[in-house]
Amino acid sequence: MRIRPGGFELEFTHEIDAAAALAPHSYRVWSHTYEYHPDYGCPEIDKREEPVTAVEPVDDHTVRIRLGELRSGGEGYVYSISMPGVRSAAVDGAPSRPLLHDAAYYTVQKTVSGDR
C-alpha cells in the first residue's frame, strides 16, 4: 500500500481478478485519528467511512483507489482498507480465490500532490 494523490495504490503478490479488483464496492475504507497523550492507548476518534470514488488498473498486480478526500495533519489519520470483494485471478487452471489477507493500513501524516 502506497499513498498517491487522491488515494492509495495497492499492490498484490499475485495477479488479481480484474473485474473484482476494479469494482469500487470491493473495497471498504475508514479513517480515524487518536488524541495525543503520554499514556499508551486511546480510543479512535473522528472515525468515518471514506467513499471509494474510482478504482483504476496499474498492472495485473496493482490497482489505484481514489477517495473523495485524504485527511492529514495533527497526529495523522490512520486509513484502514478492507478488500472483501477482491480475488486472485484464475491462472493455469487454478480457481480464483479470496485474498488470504484482505486488510491494509496506512497512517497519513501529509498528503502528496501531483498525479503520478
Which overall shape is indicated by the principal axes computed on the Cα atoms?
Answer: elongated
For the sheet with most strands, the description reads: 4 strands, antiparallel
Q: State the helix count.
A: 1
Number-wise, the strands total: 8
Strand content: 35-45%
Mean pLDDT: 92
Oligomer: single chain
Structural class: mainly beta
> How many structural units, i.e. domains?
1
CATH class value: Mainly Beta
* Main sheet: strand order: 1-2-6-5
- The radius of gyration is 15 Å
Order of helices and strands: EEHEEEEEE
Measured between the Cα atoms of the first and last residue, the distance is 15 Å
Description:
The chain is 3% helix and 40% strand. The protein is built from one helix and eight strands, in the order ββαββββββ. The chain has one helix at residues 18-21, and strands spanning 2-4, 7-11, 28-33, 45-50, 52-59, 62-67, 77-82, 103-108. A hairpin with a 2-residue loop joins strand 5 and strand 6. The relative contact order is 0.31.
